[in-house]
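Researcher: I'd like a structural prediction for the single chain below. Treat it as a standalone chain; there are no partners to consider.
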Amino acid sequence: MIENYSADTKWSDALTLRERIALLQDAQPERASTNGSAFAERHIEKWRSQYPFTVESNFSDWLNSNGLNEEEFLRVLSTSSEYFQETLPVEPSWIAELRRAYFDLDKESAAQELPKIESEAGFLIMMGPLIERGLERLRN
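Model: Treating it as a single chain, here is the predicted structure.
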């Protein structure tokens, strides 16, 4: 169960690009703590080294589709998780959805020993509450 998302900056690492852009729109550049431009430039190079961004026009098109240019994308990448955590006005809806999915876990079933599964199917045990939540939403 997620007790308090704001206590852990790791949640801000999972913010979407659009969420990060929105948080930076009103930010004063000097207020945003950074990871450094070298950090951001290394990440951009990693992006560009992967298909389909090995084709320059694809990378530019992707930036444009997100309302960014390369300088703005560098700013997003260089902004620290702590800054995003501090400026997040409300809990993102996807965190609230995760909280709802795992909140109602039966404590007795959660304490039971999980079966040993040798394949990737074991991942489904962890995903069970999310699958149940999705099915519940489909029924309603």
